[in-house]
Each structure stands twice: as structure tokens, then as C-alpha cells.
Write a structure and sequence with these properties.
A 5-stranded antiparallel beta sheet has the order 2-3-4-8-9. A hairpin with a 2-residue loop joins strand 10 and strand 11. It is 24% helix and 21% strand. By secondary structure, the chain is of the alpha+beta class. 42% of the residues are buried. The protein contains 6 helices and 11 strands.
Length: 281
């Protein structure tokens, strides 16, 4: 599933290509794509017509496009395979096209393509500038609203494993399985380290590691393991070539040479170095 860097790459593309444009019409080709818009597909399309996209924003793994008129936004969650593409209006429909937005200027469409239909788009009211359905999600580490001292306090109070805490979007948003493993490797922490044992300096080091790995991934267009994650122009990122531990089972750690280990974690996998990231007793 796309994490913060991948979603930010898409947001930047939307900021370049769709902000300031008036929507001429929206077409829903698969109702599941707007399942969270409870008023239905017809209402979704009707309420978009004539609205101007004012900006492109993101919190964690969620994107939204604030609109002119009533204080609401077109919100998107990409799920596992969702793509927001900017496409020539004359181009044929993609195989898994779910929603198409056409603009009054006759320029490129905005198309929501989703092979597995786990993603969704909806219109949502804004609360303090954030869509109401995600108002409970914590700020991500790149937002001015992210309070590192408050994060440290809440982290230590969780009494859980550090990786579980990093994946808790009510504590810090945007971190998923890939970047949690990479940040923990940078900070030399095992994923099972109890949060209450972390010192304030170590938490600061971990936050710095999260920002470092996400900034590096963003610079390289995100991480693409297949053709499902792409930017608005359909291009894949290449940060997968720079991963230190994730998906590198039995390959040597670049820091110490020990074979990277894979361990089961929450019905997924966690990757770490057995020497640099010693398991807590």
C-alpha cells in the first residue's frame, strides 16, 4: 500500500496539473469507487460539476482537493492499487477506470484507476481544513502541526512494540510497513522494542530516521514494487533500489554484513539486521 512518500508524489503532480481548474463533469464508472460517499454516485457527480479545485493537500496516506463553494473537498485514498492519473481526454479509458473528471478548459482529465477497488474517492466536509472522515488521524512528521514532544509522551505511554506504535495512524500518520522497517534500521531499534523503554533522545533519533528515509524516498519518486503504484503521469518510483532491509531477507546488511532476517509481524513481515537491531530480552 502506498505510504507517505508515494502519496506526496501524487499530491505534487495534482498540484501541478489540476489546481485552479473548473470541473465540467464527473463520471462514476464503478460504484465501489465512491462507496464511502453515502449519497451515491449521482450525488457525487452532480456536486462536483462547476467546482474549481483550489489546492492539493495530504495528511499521511490521504489526499484531498479543496473545492470552491461549500467548505468541502474531493478526498482520495489509494488503497493497494489506486492511481490518480492526469490523462489526455482523447485517450481511451483504462482497463480499471473507476471515476473520470473532465475539465471546462478541455485539458487533461483526472482519472481514478483502481484494479483491486480497495481505494475510494468521496466528497467530505472540511473541519479545520482537514476532511471530517480523517480528522482523528494524527499529523504526519512533515506537517507543522506535528508535535514531537507530544508524540514522545504518547509513544512512551502506549506500552507496546515500537513498530506497532509507528503503524498506529492515530499516533503518527503516513508510516507503513516499508518505511517503519527502514527507519528502525537507521535508528538501530528492533521492531519489538517496548515503547516505554525508549528515552527522549532515542525517540528524537527515531523521528529523525523516519523523516530521513521518507525524504530520500520522496526524492526518488517513492517505492514501486510493481506497476500499480505510479505518479500522475503513470511513472514508477525507484526507491526500492535503495532499501536497506525491507524485502532483503538473507542479503548482507550494508552496515555490518550480517544477513538480513525476516520475522512474522501482524500477518505481514518485518525485516531487520540481527546485529545492528538486537531483539530485546
Amino acid at each position: 500500500m502506498p505510504e507517505l512518500p508515494e502519496v506526496e508524489v501524487v499530491r505534487r503532480g495534482l498540484a501541478q496539473w489540476v489546481v485552479g481548474r473548473e470541473i465540467a463533469e464527473a463520471e462514476v464508472l464503478h460504484p465501489r469507487a465512491v462507496r464511502r460517499h453515502l449519497a451515491g454516485a449521482d450525488d457525487f457527480a452532480a456536486r462536483l460539476k462547476g467546482r474549481v479545485i483550489e489546492s492539493a493537500r495530504r495528511r499521511g496516506k490521504y489526499l484531498w482537493l479543496p473545492l470552491s463553494g461549500p467548505d468541502e473537498a474531493l478526498m482520495a485514498h489509494l488503497g493497494m492499487s489506486g492511481q490518480l492519473l492526469v490523462v489526455d481526454p482523447a485517450a481511451p479509458p483504462e482497463k480499471h477506470l473507476r471515476v473520470r473528471v473532465r475539465f471546462a478548459d478541455g485539458g487533461p482529465d483526472l482519472r481514478f484507476v483502481d484494479q483491486r477497488t480497495f481505494g475510494h474517492v468521496m466528497l467530505a466536509p472540511l473541519v479545520g481544513g482537514v476532511p471530517e472522515p480523517i480528522a482523528h488521524i494524527a499529523p504526519d512528521p512533515f506537517e507543522p502541526a506535528f508535535d514531537e514532544a507530544e508524540f514522545a509522551r504518547r509513544l512512551r505511554a502506549r506500552h507496546t512494540e515500537i513498530k506497532r506504535a509507528l503503524l498506529d495512524q492515530s499516533l503518527i500518520s503516513g508510516v507503513g510497513n516499508i518505511y517503519a522497517d527502514e527507519a528502525l534500521w537507521i535508528a538501530r531499534l528492533h521492531w519489538a522494542r517496548p515503547t516505554e523503554t525508549l528515552t527522549r533522545p532515542k525517540i528524537a533519533e527515531l523521528v529523525s530516521a523516519v523523516k530521513e528515509v521518507m525524504a530520500a524516498a520522496l526524492h526518488q519518486g517513492g517505492t514501486s514494487f510493481d506497476s500499480l503504484y505510479v505518479d500522475v503521469n503513470g511513472e514508477s518510483g525507484y526507491f526500492d533500489r535503495s532499501l536497506e532491509v525491507y524485502g532483503r531477507r538473507d542479503l548482507p546488511c550494508s552496515r555490518c554484513g550480517s544477513p538480513i532476517r525476516r520475522e512474522p509481524f501482524m500477518n505481514r513481515s518485518s525485516y531487520s539486521c540481527p546485529r545492528c537491531q538486537r531483539r530485546p530480552r
